Amino acid sequence: MTESGQATAARERARAREIFDALGAAFPDARCELDYSNAWQLLIATVLSAQTTDVRVNQITKELFAHWPDNAALAHADPHDVAQVVRPLGFGARRAEHITTLAAQLAERWDGRVPPDRDALVALKGVGRKTSHVVLSEAFGIPELAVDTHVLRTSRRLGLTTADDPLAVERDLVGQFDRVDLPQLSHRLIFLGRRVCHARNPECARCPVVRLCPSAQAKPDPAGARD
Fold it and tell me: Residue limits of the HhH-GPD domain (predicted)?
């Protein structure tokens, strides 16, 4: 890398650190908002969270785990019965098929345990890179960046990336932040996206990083606008 390239990279990392710290001050309680008590519950809840909200998933998993409290129980469950429980999330039959098949695969391949390995996780039914990173970071303390729709949107608006592909966004962010901070970076960007930087009508007047946001400077939004 040239001297000018090194200087540019240093400026980008310094700006990224400023954004990270400002978000930490604004959202000191940023965390995974799914309810779980072990790695298996987290895996199932994260798979169910696709195309719905964590609040809704938490309502459903309370009943789901009461009926099928461990992997062995879910692996032998009738998918039709499971579908009745998860139906309020939408796509009940498909979600039920995903998690019962996943449980059966865990039983067959890993003796019912959740493997602390990304390749092993993404080989399971319904598990993608984002879900695997949530589980690795939250359940096993392995620092990975989970890129969901909020992380993708907020990182683009903040000028941390110009990519629109989750893997490319992940690559850009990993290059600007310390690896140990990646899980918390994901939480802070998700909190920002859920609470302030909405997909439509972001509340720029309330944003804790508005002065660092090129999107807000280029196109300020009306104060108090909401989804």
Answer: 48-195
